Amino acid sequence: MLTYLIQRFGQALVTVAAMATLVFLGVYAIADPIDMLAAPDATPDERAAIAARLGLDRSLLVQFGTFAWRALHGDLGRSFVYNESALSVIVQRLPATLELALTALVLAVAVGLPLGLWAGLRPNAASGRTIMTGSILAFSLPNFWQGLMLVLVFAVTLGWFPAGGRGETVNVLGVETGLLTLDGLRHLVLPAVNLALFKLAVVIRLARAGTREAMLQDYVRFARAKGLSPARIVGVHVLKNILLPVVTVIGLEFGSMIAFAVVTETVFAWPGIGKLLIDSINRLDRPVIVAYLMLTVSLFVVINLIVDLIYAGLDPRVRLSEAA
Amino acid sequence: MSRPEILPSEGLPADGPPAASARVETAEPVWRAHLRAFFRSPGAALGFAILVLTILAACLAPWITPQDPYDLANLDVMDGTLPPGSRSVSGLLYVLGTDAQGRDMLSAIVYGLRVSLVVGLSATLVAATLGSAVGVLAANAGGRVDAVLMRLADLQLSFPAILIALVLLAAFGRGVDKVVIALIAVQWAYYARAIRATALVERRREYMEAARALALPRRSLIVRHLLPNCLPPVIVVATMQVAHAIALEATLSFLGVGVPVTEPSLGLLIKNGYDYLLSGKYWISTFPGLALVAVIVAINLVGDRLRDVLNPRFSD
Amino acid sequence: MTAPVLALENLSVGFRAGGREHVAVDRVSLTVNRGEVLGLVGESGSGKSVTGLALMGLIEAPGRVSGGRILFEGRDIAGLPEAELRPLRGKRMAMIFQDPMTTLNPVLRVETQVVEAIRAHERVGAAAARARAREALVKVGIPAPDERLRAYPHQLSGGMRQRIAIAIALLHAPALLIADEPTTALDVTIQAQILAEAQALCAEMGTALIWITHDLAVVAGLADRLCVMYAGRIVEGGPVADVIEAPLHPYTAGLIGSAPSRNARGVPLTQIPGMVPSLVDRPPGCAFAPRCPAATPDCAAPPPTALAEPSRFALCRHPLQPARFT
């Protein structure tokens, strides 16, 4: 088991290092950020001064060496635009994104499980088919378009919720959160629904397939023969069987929710790291782009690592084959 | 060199292995049967009709649109943000309204469709070819080559498509060609995985054994015997991937990192109209959006039916 | 004589498919008395398992009880709504199934599955229910019951799991236990143990037992009476010794001939030619006629009931023993 752990950990480190190199080389190949930073009428001397200040006058290799050395010390560079540490620019906006992604995750499971159960119990009824059609649409239509329609219907036409922004936040233990104010919650509803829709479709599919399969199993028949109520059969026997795969998949998908938040945050002007990334790409703020990508890639690698380790811990077969 | 006569005959039972029905000699009748089966589903027929119409419209855009939306000489700011059904000063009917520059939305949508379809189709075509080649190569080479290629595919598939596309576009900058490259980079791994799996199964089938026993050259084995039998799954995956590619391109363009403003796709049209959506001028965003939705739904309907008809071993 | 625990009167079960109704169980009549063991024998597809499920009201769409009555403790329960059947299931009538690997829910502890069966029918506290569960496990001969209660099903052997299923079925001392091939999936030695234990427990509680099996040898030593099913119908019934000694129906004779036995060493086993007809293309007359060595052209008409002593019957025009027709 220890060998396996070390091996997996090593692989994760290699992945992060490889991605760091790729990301750096890729991002530093973008057009000259000095065009964006210097005044249009700046003299070549002024431009050179900016380049020297930002270290852009040195060769790519030297820049990469500096970047890598600093990254190892937790320093991902200074934002050209905000003129502070790129990492701290991101960390300031991280709570907003986490708040959004977690709410969406909870929403996807809380709504998707019952809907999927229902559709699985009545696969041929009109209600079951409607749920499936809805999930296919949520699955295949572009997320930003769904967000736009949410804005059009619930913000512009009905006026129930605000169309964008994060609303009022309060500071709890140094973290700004909108979860504790009514205004913050109202602002959260539409973005959270938007971000949840895709995962909701995934949960519905998983839950429906699991329920259909479980209902055909002997243990459900035996549970009925025991005289259990339908509520107990569905709520305990079936639910517990479909919960495990759903929770596993959703755990795995948390990282992709953070990535997809880029879209939702842009639609709803949500001040999280996703919107920051798009703004930074448009402003050629390289250090922030690199810091964002490094953070997200590391997050993914960590999530994958954790899932792998949990599987190895749960499934004796994985352990055995690795030991052999 | 003539093909060996040891290929399995056609006329398999309806639930028999589907790939077998794509054998080259029997292509004509099998295709006709598939075609009939395909159009038996009203949903698929509708999807197909929508697709044909959109592709035709996109091809014929310069001749059928009321206005060339990118010829500035045609535009009049006085016609800006007119609601659907308005007429221009010169009497031109704006069926779907105009955008802020006074551009006819209907014309803009047809031109936008063009960009979206070209990007989606070309990216998918290249990715399918490239991915299939990698998949077949991996399955045939085996060993270290297989391990490295598949490890790479797995690594890439473990990150969401949008993240990879964003990384690439952050590096390349905007541009139709750059979006296509990003989409290819995102997609190839699906094909490589699917084809490798199919090829590994097909390799062990009797007709391949027979072809090997005849000592046919390796290249002819792969190209003439293995590849045609791996095709049906590629066709199904590719159909669905066109929809994904179009949706992803639209998303990237909506985010402002996709196609440039000079060649707006549906996604960019939607982005441009987004600010006006909030002030109630819904048509600038909504109609391009509906066109996008129609194309994606149509492709999905067609792809679903294709999957049922060709019934490949892997689905979903 | 007291009223039987269960009496089926012309019970039919149909499955709707492609606009037609296929008959899986066809006019089955039988009675089971208190404490009696009835063997229900037939090949797969004969309708024996469907009969068992129909008794419990567990036929699921597209199937349905399409005719006849199920008199359980004097009351017709055919077509009773779920809510009225539920108090009976697990309480007055219980059922165990073939594969002990799948009858217990893999993600719930044994304790949960036993306790929920107790609390489905009785208002008892958690501690009392747990004590009852432990007691029930001891009764079916499970060693270290506390440990087993905490276990998940996959941690137990097949025999152990089937014992737990039996313990659950007998929790409320039901009037009737339907056992659908419960030992088929087990080792031969475990099979014998479980058979003996189930029989002893039923005798002790006065529970009537319907033992469904394809294996004549299993019921021969267990049942009081025997019913043989073929293509949805009961083709022969009577006391177990008489049926096995001198079958009336050629099909029963064929079943006996194809079963290995101790006193026929060296004699080749006979074989019934052909296969059980599917639900779809069932012949109008005697369903066994196409495979029957004694069949004549008039077997194409519906077979009459042949009666013989003591209380034996067969659906056959050409019974193998002297009999009178109704």
TrEMBL record, chain A:
Keyword Transport attributed: yes
Subcellular location(s) of the protein: Cell membrane
UniProt domain ABC transmembrane type-1: residue ranges: 94-311
InterPro entries: BPD_transp_1_N, MetI-like, MetI-like_sf
Transmembrane segments: 12-31, 100-121, 142-161, 188-207, 242-269, 289-311
Gene3D superfamilies to which the protein is assigned, alphabetical: MetI-like
Keywords carried by this UniProt record: Cell membrane, Membrane, Transmembrane, Transmembrane helix, Transport
Entry-linked PROSITE patterns: ABC_TM1
Topology of the protein relative to the lipid bilayer: Multi-pass membrane protein
Family annotation (PANTHER family): ABC TRANSPORTER PERMEASE PROTEIN (PTHR43163:SF2), DIPEPTIDE TRANSPORT SYSTEM PERMEASE PROTEIN DPPB-RELATED (PTHR43163)
Family: Belongs to the binding-protein-dependent transport system permease family.
Protein name, entry field: Dipeptide transport system permease protein DppB
Lineage of the organism: Bacteria, Pseudomonadati, Pseudomonadota, Alphaproteobacteria, Hyphomicrobiales
UniProtKB/TrEMBL annotation, chain B:
Classification via PROSITE patterns: ABC_TM1
TM regions (residue ranges): 44-64, 115-140, 152-173, 179-201, 222-247, 282-303
Positions of the UniProt region annotated as Disordered: 1-20
Entries under Gene3D superfamilies matching the protein: MetI-like
Locations listed in the record: Cell membrane
Keyword terms of this UniProt record: Cell membrane, Membrane, Transmembrane, Transmembrane helix, Transport
UniProt cross-references to InterPro entries, sorted A to Z: BP-dependent_transpt_permease (IPR050366), MetI-like (IPR000515), MetI-like_sf (IPR035906), OppC_N (IPR025966)
Domain ABC transmembrane type-1: 113-303
Membrane topology: Multi-pass membrane protein
Family: Belongs to the binding-protein-dependent transport system permease family.
PANTHER family in the cross-refs: ABC TRANSPORTER PERMEASE PROTEIN (PTHR43386:SF26), OLIGOPEPTIDE TRANSPORT SYSTEM PERMEASE PROTEIN APPC (PTHR43386)
Protein name: D,D-dipeptide transport system permease protein DdpC
Taxonomy of the source species: Bacteria, Pseudomonadati, Pseudomonadota, Alphaproteobacteria, Hyphomicrobiales
Encoding gene per record: ddpC
TrEMBL record, chain C:
Keywords: ATP-binding, Cell membrane, Membrane, Nucleotide-binding, Transport
Source species, domain of life: Bacteria
Membrane topology: Peripheral membrane protein
Broad class of the protein's primary localization: membrane
CDD domains (alphabetical): ABC_NikE_OppD_transporters
Keyword Membrane: yes
One Pfam family recorded for the sequence: ABC_tran
Subcellular location: Cell inner membrane
GO molecular function: ATP binding
Domain ABC transporter, residue spans: 6-256
InterPro entries documented for this protein: AAA+_ATPase, ABC_Ni/Peptide_Import, ABC_transporter-like_ATP-bd, ABC_transporter-like_CS, Oligopep_ABC_C, P-loop_NTPase
PANTHER family: DIPEPTIDE TRANSPORT ATP-BINDING PROTEIN DPPD, OLIGOPEPTIDE TRANSPORT ATP-BINDING PROTEIN APPD
Family the UniProt entry places it in: Belongs to the ABC transporter superfamily.
NCBIfam families: oligo_HPY
Protein name: Oligopeptide transport ATP-binding protein OppD
Gene for this chain: oppD_2
